[in-house]
Amino acid sequence: MRKRFFIILLSIISIQFIYCQLLIARVDTEINISDKIVYEPDNYNLENNSILSNLLDEDGMGKDSIAPELKFDISSVGDSFLIVITSNENLYNGWLQDKLLHIFYSWHSYGLYTRLVCDSKDEIHSTVSNSGGGYYYIRMNNKGEISEEIPAWNGVQSHPILTDSNGHVVYINQPTPSGNDGVVDQQNNSHIVRTDMEKIKYTKIDSSGNILINDITIVINANSWTGCARITCNNNGTIYVIWSNGEHEICYIVSVDGGNTWSTTNSFGSVTWMQWHPEIVTDDSNNIHIIWMDTRITGGYDYELFYKKLYPNGAISIDDTRLTDNTVIGAIMFPKFCMDSENNIYVTWSDYYGSGPNWFTKINGNIDKGGASAINAEITLIEDTIIPQNNNMECPVPIVDSWDNLHLIANAGYQPNTNKYLYYQKYAVSPVVFVTFPDSTKRKIEMIGSDTLWSGYFSPSLGGDYYLEASGSDTAGNIGYVDTLIYYSGIEENKNRNSNNIYNITVKMLDGLSIDYNISETKVVSISIYNIIGQKVYSNKGIKSPGQYSVKWNGNTGVYFIKIDIDRYKYTKKIVIIK
């Protein structure tokens, strides 16, 4: 990818140099921190059919199929890069309308046993289990448009395993209470578990499809009659398998050697109430996150959603935490969850046996309580909300793509020997901006704004190339992309740059902004305030005699950057004004 940028840069360097100079001049010539920016925009757009109801034609195709055009504006403010995204149309955050993928006529069983995964190219793969063995396979692009359907499909060794266009092995996960579950490790090996009466069995398949371990028993007395054993793998190759023993005890086992040997059973303790359908995932720090259905508050079969977090060594980070209230949302059924690039956790579930709506919540997976339980409010980012859907769907299964957009599939029609319907839906997040540092560290930039104007900032820590990429969706579900490469040569240090605040500068918010400082000898003092898009909104420069000074400024609600220069001493600060 980077090689492509440099080829483009060589071909248009003269034009980009002029653009860069205009950009720097537009922000302000006083903003300079001995860094060099090579600005190299590379805009490209992808098209998508609309999937909002008010934008659909009769045939289901979108009236609006043009992706938004995104543009980067980048400037330096103090020791940070200010990133501004503009678009030619409003960008959209939220649910797009559910749409029908396929109808299965006179389907023999309860539900569809749907599976879903997103690969390294952001292609989406879904299957449902066929009665005669194998799967009905559907491949979609990142907008849910079908690119391939295979009515009778089998993956590697008859497991739902495929290889994507990047050569990565992908296991299409099993979300329903029956069937296998699998995960792929860093070496492209697939690890698969299934329940067999009282037993849990394990299979390992390498990236070429060779069976390395074939259906061995790893738990003898699992008592997981519901068939809901789940498996995950962390960055170090440690594998975890979790299940509910007799619906009253959540248990798990661990393998630290790639599935060759397994630990004895670990238990969270046997309880008198019901604990069912546990799900497990690990984050990028190898912490372990678990959700399950729980009746400790309600009794009977009125399940609520509970959450627990473990450190990599198995110690408790967050103890049992209640995430839902049965009196508000009703009983939950078949919760599923996934995790984005910032360890935020997305949970979806059905109301009890599909009799009500589907629900969605988002929690912060980075919270650490040191072994204590959490309060729902302190870890919840999006409170329990009904997913807006036109169809009576159940068992929603979520995944997150590389841009942190949420995709889900769900089925409609529960009774056997009736028609079943497979639906797709997407939660669009706009805009999403990632920056890759020279050491290959990738970070997400927090963007604020609305409609066509969004902004954020990041502080460079190394000299070298910084690769920025962004995506944004319009209200019709069309996705636009933009990326660019900037070069940062570093900050020229001076003797006072990292010293203590020798001029006693303080910034206070008292009926507006107050900047206070004192000097002991005559100095040239320059104070500038910039808004979030780099425009100077206040400037004061002059020779000041020794003494105490206070500068007052009454700004509107927004994010601002303050820059103060006193001789060779430089002071910068970001502030937020809320009125």
Could you please describe the fold and organization of this structure?
Helices cover 6% and strands 50% of the residues. The protein has four helices and 43 strands. The strands form eleven sheets. The chain has a five-stranded antiparallel β-sheet with strand order 1-36-35-31-32, with helices on one face. Strands 4, 5, 28, 29 and 30 form a five-stranded antiparallel β-sheet that branches. A hairpin with a 2-residue loop joins strand 2 and strand 3. The radius of gyration is 27 Å and the shape is elongated.
SSE order and pairing:
Blueprint: H1 2-11, H2 13-27, E1 40-45, E2 70-77, E3 80-87, E4 94-95, E5 99-107, E6 114-118, E7 124-129, E8 135-140, E9 146-153, E10 161-163, E11 169-171, E12 181-184, E13 190-196, E14 199-205, E15 211-219, E16 230-233, E17 239-245, E18 249-255, E19 266-267, E20 275-282, E21 288-294, E22 304-310, E23 316-322, H3 326-329, E24 332-339, E25 344-351, E26 358-364, H4 376-379, E27 380-386, E28 394-400, E29 406-412, E30 418-428, E31 432-436, E32 442-445, E33 448-450, E34 453-458, E35 464-473, E36 479-488, E37 506-509, E38 513-519, E39 523-531, E40 536-544, E41 547-553, E42 558-566, E43 569-577
Antiparallel strand pairs: 1-36, 2-3, 3-34, 4-30, 5-30, 6-7, 7-8, 8-9, 10-11, 12-13, 13-14, 14-15, 16-17, 17-18, 18-19, 20-21, 21-22, 22-23, 24-25, 25-26, 26-27, 28-29, 29-30, 31-32, 31-35, 33-34, 35-36, 37-38, 38-41, 39-40, 39-42, 42-43
